[in-house]
Specification:
242 residues; alpha/beta; BirA Bifunctional Protein, domain 2; 9-stranded mixed β-sheet; 5 helices
């Protein structure tokens, strides 16, 4: 199968809602095209030929100012701050339409939003989630950090099998409509981990959160980490970024 072409966009530092709206716009455009294609296929079967454009893939990378986001299966009580305290500390909060529970996004965290038409890859959400995990595992592996999966818990972990040492380095939560994806992953690079003290991360109690910086004992080049993510995305999803 030929490699898929994926349009890459680096959104830089962008507020969460603006990035969410951009994702929704790209997803809905693809969903509309898929609907039109189905109608056109019906028209072709009736002797009419007027096929629309094909769907497009996108891969967005960005950083968000401090924000807590809650997934569809999450509970607001996993936010350990009052609404007033959130405002006082200049932290935004959003209920979202992705899977998963509560997480934090902040500066020096690589947030990746793939908007992919999985019908051009494979129609398997579980496989897609494992692909996102693999992308991160490969990336942190380049820093000498062994990332692993934790049974029943989506994301990338360090030492998930050692009780008391389990720590999460990347949260993952997605939405899929008509096999078009949105939302994605959040990899802690040089992230201020103090913000995670105000939530029960991913709704999982008594487990730590970590970052590349914390694991290595020094900060890393954020731009370089993004380049590693891009390269490993192409490998894992057998795609070419343009």
């Amino acid at each position: 199968m030929d490699k898929q072409t994926v349009i890459f966009k680096d959104l830089g530092i962008i507020d969460y809602k603006t990035a969410w709206d951009q994702q929704e716009e790209l997803l809905q455009a693809n969903v509309s095209i898929k609907s039109a294609l189905r109608n056109s296929q019906l028209a072709v079967s009736n002797g009419q030929r007027n096929l629309p454009l094909a769907t497009s893939h996108y891969f967005l990378l960005c950083e968000h100012p401090p924000v807590y986001t809650l997934g569809k299966s999450g509970k607001k009580e996993n936010v350990l701050m009052s609404d007033d305290d959130l405002v006082k500390n200049n932290i935004e909060f959003f209920d979202t339409n992705r899977g998963g529970d509560i997480t934090f996004h902040g500066l020096q965290q690589i947030v990746g939003y793939p908007i992919l038409d999985l019908e051009k890859y494979y129609t398997d959400i579980g496989k897609y989630l494992r692909g996102l995990e693999e992308l991160v595992i490969l990336t942190i592996g380049e820093y000498g950090i062994k990332g692993e999966r934790s049974s029943g818990e989506t994301g990338v972990w360090i030492e998930p099998g050692i009780k008391g040492k389990e720590r999460k380095i990347c949260a993952i939560g997605v939405r899929c409509s008509r096999w078009v994806t949105m939302h994605g992953f959040a990899l802690n690079v040089n992230t201020d981990l103090g913000y995670f003290n105000n939530i029960v991360p991913c709704g999982i109690e008594n487990k730590q959160v970590t970052s590349i910086e914390k694991e290595l004992g020094h900060d890393v080049d954020y731009a370089e980490a993004k380049e590693k993510i891009k390269r490993n995305f192409e490998i894992v999803f057998d795609s070419v970024l343009q």
